[in-house]
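SAMPLE LOG
Freezer: B-3
Tube label: C17
Construct: single chain, 143 aa
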Amino acid sequence: MGSVNKVILIGNLGRDPEMRYTQDKKPVVNFSLATQEVWTGKDGQRMEKTEWHSIVVWGKLAEICRDYLTTGRQIYVEGRLATRSYVDKSGQKKYKTEVIASQVVFLGPAPSGDIPRTPPAPEDKEEIIEETDIPVDEEDIPF
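STRUCTURE (predicted):
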């Protein structure tokens, strides 16, 4: 039997997407996504924990995320986990686990007060966008 590497998240953007391009001119965007867990503690008090996820989006989907997503917007993300290593400024080898998104669904309207960077998406339905044309190669990641 094969294996499965699939992640599904619904959360809110922690910061606006940051767009970069590889040496081959492939667009890639990064942003953080916050998800919350809520439960009742033993003492009956409501407890909350926020988990932060690093999201990476490639190709046309990256460009659309750059144009429409802003801090606070609720989205659905589907993708796979990938871990990469890098050397920090002090020479230490570090590892970072990220979600490589293959699908992004914009949920609800954009947060009030935000001005879209391009014409707004229709608000009466969810907009589904899938990555179709760019295979992800970890050597292409520019950071």
